[in-house]
Design goal:
Blueprint: E1 2-3, E2 6-14, E3 19-26, E4 31-37, E5 46-48, E6 50-54, E7 57-58, E8 75-79, H1 80-88, E9 102-105, E10 117-120, E11 123-131, E12 152-159, E13 161-164, E14 170-173
Parallel strand pairs: 8-9
Antiparallel strand pairs: 1-2, 2-3, 3-14, 4-5, 4-9, 6-7, 6-13, 8-12, 10-11, 10-14, 11-12
Length: 174
């Protein structure tokens, strides 16, 4: 049975514990809109067509500060719809300008929760926490109102692999 894009439950393999669990899976269509990296660290990050996702982060991306990166925040995620809403309010934000590695279109961003798993092909990312706003992203906001950017998600990598622009993103809720 399906409600609001969610299939009630089905068995899925959990890469973290290497066992089967029952999970709700979001079947609505969400895709990778952009993949963003910066070889030198910091922002803005620049769009590439595909990237290898490793346990320690996105290949080709560097962290400028020690409080970024690490296994619990290996990948930073943000919503394309949220970027477009902020642009409509005259903020000069663009994909990658707030440091996200993967910009996703089509997810109900407000329904995401800590420990949700995003499945992108062979790659599994587990949401760990919302990234706190950082002064390094202030150029993306009118009047440097960077504190309004409090809904980016950090994720750890459960399964490594390659992601591409246009790849489908599924959300599992364990």
């Amino acid at each position: 049975m399906q409600k609001n894009g969610w299939k009630e439950a089905e068995p899925v393999f959990d890469g973290a514990s290497h066992g089967w669990k029952w999970a709700r899976i979001n079947k609505s269509m969400a895709i990778i809109e952009r993949i963003n990296v910066n070889l030198y660290g910091g922002v803005p990050k620049h769009s590439i067509s595909s990237a290898m996702i490793r346990v320690d982060g996105v290949e080709g991306d560097k962290q400028k500060h020690s409080n970024h990166g690490g296994t619990e925040r290996a990948v930073l995620l943000y919503s394309m719809e949220r970027i477009e809403t902020l642009q409509q309010h005259k903020h000069p934000i663009t994909p990658g300008s707030v440091g996200e590695n993967i910009t996703i279109r089509g997810l109900n961003w407000s329904s995401l929760k800590e420990s949700n798993i995003l499945q992108i092909g062979d790659v599994e990312l587990q949401l760990t926490f919302k990234a706190p706003p950082c002064p390094g992203i202030k150029e993306s906001f009118f009047d440097y109102a960077w504190s309004i950017c409090s809904d980016r998600w950090c994720a750890k990598v459960l399964s490594e692999g390659t992601v591409n622009i246009g790849d489908r993103v599924l959300v599992r809720s364990l």
